[in-house]
Amino acid sequence: MPPTYIIQKSRRRSISVSVMTDNRVLVKAPYGISERTVQEFLLSKKDWIAKHLEKQNQEAAKADSLGLLSQDEIKQIKKRARKIIPQRVEYWAKQIGVTYGRIAIRLQSSRWGSCAQSGNLNFNCLLVIMPEEIMDSVVVHELCHRKHMNHSKAFYEEIDRVFPDYKRCDKWLKDNGGVYLKRVEK
Ligand SMILES: [Zn+2]
To answer: Ligand 1 centroid vs 166 CA: distance in angstroms?
Structure first.
């Protein structure tokens, strides 16, 4: 049976599917697409969708067994993150040879970091409870955006130059990060 989905139509040309954190399947499609085309597309992505739903359910089960982070735990995590992350940023900025603006550290439920055109950086405080090299890999990623504001080959080559372990860390974050995010009350 095809999964139930919600559809978001816009002036795009292609059709895409993603699984949202609440397990709903989101289809993005161009205006005027037929129900049949959507169904066929979903059928062709059946295995991919099932795999992602399975992964999310496993993450939710693991997060449940660990329990939600309490307000007090979050306060401690933020405090530690606001001390440690700026130090890592300073260290890696020197290695990469870039400057940066303000650093904001918050609890976020969907992303790990970002870098604005202005050079301001934004990090998720949960990074500080992960293995140190994982936190570093996110810091390096955002700082390398100070050289390349995209995810081009040159961008990843820059990361590789200063942080050869990046691929493994990035995979770790994709595999394990969801559990951390699910321990935060929405
Ligand atoms: Zn990026």
So the answer is: 13
Helix (H, G, I), strand (E, B) or coil at 149: coil
Q: Is the pTM of this model over 0.85?
A: no
Domain ranges of the chain: 5-66, 71-182
- Would you give the distance in Å from CA 39 to the centre of its chain? 28
Q: Compute, in angstroms, the gap from residue 138 CA to the centroid of ligand 1.
A: 9
* Secondary structure of 55-78 in HEC code, one letter for each residue: HHHHHHHHHHHHCCCCHHHHHHHH
Taking the centre of ligand 1 as the mean of its atom positions, its distance from the CA of residue 119, in whole angstroms, is 13
As a whole number of angstroms, the distance between CA 52 and CA 23 comes to 9
AA letter at 55: K
- What CATH superfamily is the domain 71-182? Metalloproteases ("zincins"), catalytic domain (3.30.2010.10)
Cα separation, 63 vs 70, in Å, equals 13
Structure tokens at 103: 């650093």
Å from CA of 114 to ligand 1 middle = 7
Residue whose tokens read 């959507």: 38
Predicted confidence (pLDDT) per residue in 59-79, tens digit = 889 888 889 999 999 999 999
